[in-house]
Amino acid sequence: MIEKNRRWVGSLQTAINQLSKKDRLMVMREAGVGCSSDILALCESVLNHPVGSLEDLITGWNTVRESKNLQGKWVMHGDCITGTFHECGCPLVRSGFVQLTPIQCLCSKGMIERVFSHVTCKKADVHIKQSIGNGDDICEFTVMIRDD
Asked: Which of 50, 139, 146, 147 has the fewest CB atoms within 10 Å around its CB?
């Protein structure tokens, strides 16, 4: 049954890849939104309190990554937040259930946007500078929080 589900997800990825760039981003952004509550819950678990600030989020998320032996971290540089990662953190990819493709990077983008927007109550613009799913050696995301 698991192999059948893997094949089904693989065919879904193939179909999503045939969509326009705009539609791929829309579909995968929504998929990523579903994981945002998981990230927040994990952060709250390691912090032992609700995530109430960017500092809490970054500290909690970095602690979660470290507890899972995932190399890389989030760093805040003024109003720009950068995440540099040496392996994909997606549990579906890490478990082998989903093959890593550029589609998963769009999912991560959506999840990151939602998490940072939720914590700041502002719009978060996320840019994928590099990604392992696109053939790069690392994943690098930048997050800019907007006041509008």
From this structure: 147
CATH code at 134?
3.90.1520.10
What are the tens digits of pLDDT across the range 12-38?
889 999 999 999 999 999 999 888 999
Amino acid, single-letter form, for residue 97: F
What is the reported pLDDT for 40?
A: 96
Q: Which domain holds residue 87?
A: 2-146
pLDDT tens-digit readout, 29-88: 999 988 899 999 999 999 999 999 999 999 999 999 999 999 999 999 988 999 999 999
- Name the β-bridge partners of 126: 143
Q: How many CB atoms lie within 10 A of CB 27?
A: 18
On whether the CB atoms of residues 115 and 57 are closer than 8 A, the answer is yes
* Strand arrangement of the beta sheet that strand 80-85 belongs to: 72-77, 80-85, 139-146, 123-130
| Residue 126, burial from CB neighbour count under 10 angstroms (0-12, 13-18, 19+) | buried
- Of 46, 47, 57, residue with least CA distance to 111: 57
Domain count, the chain: 1
